[in-house]
């Protein structure tokens, strides 16, 4: 991997395929102030897209990914307090509990974090299989973000399985800004969303997305796949600032963030 931007001595790396250590990757993707305290809650998204903008192939993101993309996926998780994900992605991708990374255990401890981030599933209907390890045996309890009008029997099933249900909306649905605040209220200020596009579009539209880590896969897919963010368009496109750009084997790992004051 090499860094294309900001330009450093790694830009013309003698060995662009050298695998960066966990520590190097963790430094490259550190939250703005390193411990989440500065700008308060910080919501970053991590998504992969093909050159023609597809966020999925055959209903999954894995065909667009690479080994380096998966390493960055793991690092972003390892830096986060909580991973926010839409229920459809949990169902489509067969989400499992987050795994502890031995090489980053000390970093998490020093940052006052538990062994793994909490997975926070956003769902209105709670039509989820609560017998799965994601709910029954995570290292830290899985959270379910839903609205006050969610089916009570599904809330009961989630809680019986060991999940913690957090209300962040007055109707059946979740208000994206309230979801961020609710997580911050639980002490989760370094937030990562892994999509999918329906959920990410709502964070974008609500103006609460601070950063996008976008992997551009050197692939064309055509077809009618979703883009990385869906839903109603914003009135005015929101401008982001390029924070860094890494490259490995033609995959571009970009990091865009909102302008910091
Ligand atoms: N390219 C990438 O990086 C990437 C990343 C993630 C996923 N994906 C792909 O994207 C697809 C899935 O994404 P998706 O956009 O279809 O769905 P999604 O955003 O993962 O999940 C949609 C579901 O989340 C819940 N939800 C969303 N907003 C909500 C709100 N405001 N209040 C309450 N619940 C809410 C609902 O769950 P209920 O139906 O349970 O009520 C809804 O059906 C898959 O093909 C996956 O592989 C790609």
UniProtKB/TrEMBL annotation:
Segment forming the signal sequence: none
Coiled coil feature spans: none
Residues of the Bacterial bifunctional deaminase-reductase C-terminal domain: 42-235
GO BP, sorted A to Z: riboflavin biosynthetic process
Classification via InterPro entries: DHFR-like_dom_sf, RibDG_C, Riboflavin_Biosynth_HTPR
Gene3D superfamilies attached to this UniProt entry: Dihydrofolate Reductase, subunit A (3.40.430.10)
Pfam families (alphabetical): RibD_C
Pathway: Cofactor biosynthesis; riboflavin biosynthesis
GO molecular function: 5-amino-6-(5-phosphoribosylamino)uracil reductase activity
Keywords for the protein's UniProt record, in alphabetical order: NADP, Oxidoreductase
The name this protein goes by in its record: Bacterial bifunctional deaminase-reductase C-terminal domain-containing protein
The organism of origin for this protein: Streptomyces fumanus
